[in-house]
Design a protein that fits this description.
alpha+beta; five-stranded antiparallel sheet; two-stranded antiparallel ribbon
Length: 279
């Protein structure tokens, strides 16, 4: 964890939005998010991956965006995949939305906030949503002024950080997800899977843990304990991902899994797991 530092782009955007906030009083935050950085904070919800670090909150329904570290493989968070974690979207709480931080903010400042926020099944669904949003109005909101200020921010962001227009935003997000799936050697219920260490030679697909696609019940603590103490790293990580997906908040499981992570030297991951899975 000692070598995990705030990405320079995130640090620059945090400072930049403080500098320009006075110019856009209709916007709660110029970036559109509540930005933060704490290497031990994964978001705090049961579905917040224990190998993720939250960097942005939307301020609604617990939705947050995080760097996926893949258990410390991505020490340069500038290049880590970006997740949207939506705790209220039961069964589909976690999804890849960008290949890296630059792509995430490029999509956002190009006006594709809703694509990063929602899981559209088809490009047509997304385009229909955009048209509906453009036609929506409210007598209680000075929409024109707000939109003008958002456009001003987007133009300044493009100038300041070199963000370029994206030809097809929907396909960009889909490409990020497809790229992730090509790296997966062990699937997990949350859809993220476990990938091989890019520093090593490519790995063959691994055998799933005994409870894959099954409920991990409270009365199997002893059997789970026997498994995790002998499991290889992918097996252990995949079991924990699936336990999170199932909202398995039993204190004895949290203690068991956290202890095993600590024993293996994954101290930050153990801390994040306890933070988000302790009732």
């Amino acid at each position: 964890m000692d070598n995990i530092t705030i990405p320079k782009l995130l640090q620059r955007i945090m400072q930049w939005e403080n500098d320009i906030a006075q110019h856009v009083p209709k916007l709660e935050r110029p970036s559109g998010y509540f930005l933060q950085f704490d290497p031990l904070d994964n978001g705090g919800y049961y579905c917040s991956p224990f190998d993720a670090i939250v960097f942005a909150n939307t301020g609604m329904d617990g939705i947050h965006y995080s760097f996926l570290t893949d258990f410390g493989m991505h020490t340069d968070l500038e290049q880590a995949p970006i997740l949207c974690v939506s705790p209220m979207d039961f069964g589909n709480c976690v999804r890849i939305v960008a290949r890296n931080l630059h792509e995430f903010f490029e999509l956002h400042f190009e006006g594709h906030e809703d694509l990063l926020l929602n899981d559209f099944k088809t490009e047509e669904d997304y385009m229909n949503h955009r048209r509906e949003q453009e036609n929506n109005s409210s007598e209680y909101i000075d929409k024109d002024t707000r939109n003008q200020q958002k456009q001003w921010v987007r133009e300044r962001a493009a100038e300041q950080f070199g963000f370029r227009p994206i030809e097809n935003a929907f396909q960009t997000v889909q490409a990020a997800r497809a790229s992730r799936q090509r790296q997966v050697i062990l699937p997990t219920l949350d859809g993220l899977g476990i990938i091989s260490d890019p520093g090593n030679s490519p790995s063959e697909p691994c055998a799933p843990h005994p409870w894959h696609k099954k409920d991990i019940t409270y009365d199997e603590l002893e059997a789970v304990g026997q498994f995790v103490r002998k499991a290889d790293a992918p097996g252990l990580f995949s079991l924990i991902r699936d336990a999170q997906h199932q909202d398995l908040l039993h204190p004895e499981y949290v203690k068991l899994l956290g202890s095993e992570l600590t024993t293996r030297g994954y101290l930050a991951e153990a801390s994040r797991l306890r933070r988000c899975m302790t009732p």
